Amino acid sequence: MKHHQSKQQHPIWLFDLDNTLHDASSAVFSRLNGSMTDYIEQHLGLARQEANDLRVHYWRRYGATLLGLEKHHGIRAAHFLAQTHQLPGLEAHLRMPACDRAALKRLPGRKFILTNAPADYAKRVVTALDLASCFEGIISIEGMRVFGDLRPKPDARMLRVVLARHRLPAHRCVLIEDTLANLKTARAAHLRTVWMQSYLKHNPHGPEVGAHLHRRPAWVCARIRRLRALHAVFSPSP
Question: 64, 109, 133, 229: which is deepest, by most CB within 10 A?
Fold first, then answer.
């Protein structure tokens, strides 16, 4: 009984994937952006620069290019995700520090991936990083529909639905993310939040460009540069 109670007191960890568990800035993002632009160019019949501009516009307006394409052009999410995330040879370019991998495997408590990426891509990345055994589940963009509408992070409605679906009490959950907007929504929903900063300087086109990495916004409970720091950030409740 004591063992069961102790386990119950550990946090429930929700990890973002790209630029949180691994360096996606160098391994993924430039290729993924090009793949999305290719898709828009081909399926909407736009010139290359127009396609790239539209990709960026929808990303800035909706937080995900896919949302704009689905809303304004009737693009099927499953087709877009499958086509744009093929990324041949991806596994050979994935990197994470060995100390982070070891720390993640030692971290007590239930662990999930919570990512706006598609499930097949997330599984490839987690497997290539030798982390598949660490996680109880992967919550991907396919599971982020609310009343039929796609609602990826940072949507608050999606977060409430996902937590309820998986029976995860918000007050026990800790979200580890590189994106401040996602952390802000999570904190408002009573999750604890950790801002992973390790890879932000290498992502010149990401949403955190210009962010003051030495400041801690009110909705961020802790800032880290290595996953091993999580062992000291949140200890089990007394």
Answer: 64
111-124 confidence digits (pLDDT tens): 999 999 999 999 99
- Sheet containing 12-15: give its strands across: 137-139, 111-114, 12-15, 173-177, 192-196, 222-224
Q: What is the Cα–Cα distance from 172 to 84, expressed in whole angstroms?
A: 35
Let me know: does 191 contact 30? Beta carbons within 8 Å.
Answer: no
Q: In DSSP terms, which residues pair with 145 in a beta bridge?
A: 150
What is the spatial distance between Cα 131 and Cα 95, in angstroms, rounded to a whole number? 12
The model's pLDDT over 68-121, given as tens digits with 9 standing for 90+, comes to 999 999 999 999 999 999 999 999 999 999 999 999 999 999 999 999 999 999
Q: Which two tokens stand for residue 87?
A: 């990324």
Report d(CA 196, CA 19) in Å as an integer. 8
Rounded to 10 deg, the angle between the 180-188 and 156-165 helix axes is: 60
